[in-house]
């Protein structure tokens, strides 16, 4: 069963950031979809076969730039 989780992420400023973050999260094994609403912080919705931890999302974003998951 696919579930949707929402994460607040700081550091996204443009559509290029959205593409980078989406690709990084879509590369995670359980993820089937990503949607991003730009803002400060941005809202990232992830559809996945299993729940992701904040640490998993942050680890995927750490390799892509100055993006931070916030509580």
From TrEMBL:
Transmembrane segments: none
SUPFAM superfamilies attached to this UniProt entry: HMA, heavy metal-associated domain
Gene3D superfamilies in the cross-refs: 3.30.70.100
Residue ranges annotated for the HMA domain, each copy included: 3-69
Superkingdom of this protein's organism: Bacteria
Keyword Membrane included in the entry's annotation: no
Signal peptide bounds: none
UniProt keyword annotations, A-Z: Metal-binding
Cross-referenced InterPro entries: Heavy-metal-associated_CS, HMA_dom, HMA_dom_sf
GO MF annotation: an example: metal ion binding
Keyword Oxidoreductase: no
The protein, known as: HMA domain-containing protein
Organism: Mycolicibacterium anyangense
């Amino acid at each position: 069963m696919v579930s949707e989780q929402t994460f607040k992420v700081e550091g996204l400023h443009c559509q290029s950031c959205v593409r980078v973050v989406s690709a990084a999260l879509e590369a995670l094994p359980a993820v089937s979809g990503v949607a991003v609403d730009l803002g400060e912080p941005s809202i990232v919705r992830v559809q996945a076969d299993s729940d992701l931890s904040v640490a998993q999302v942050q680890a995927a974003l750490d390799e892509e730039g100055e993006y931070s998951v916030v509580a």
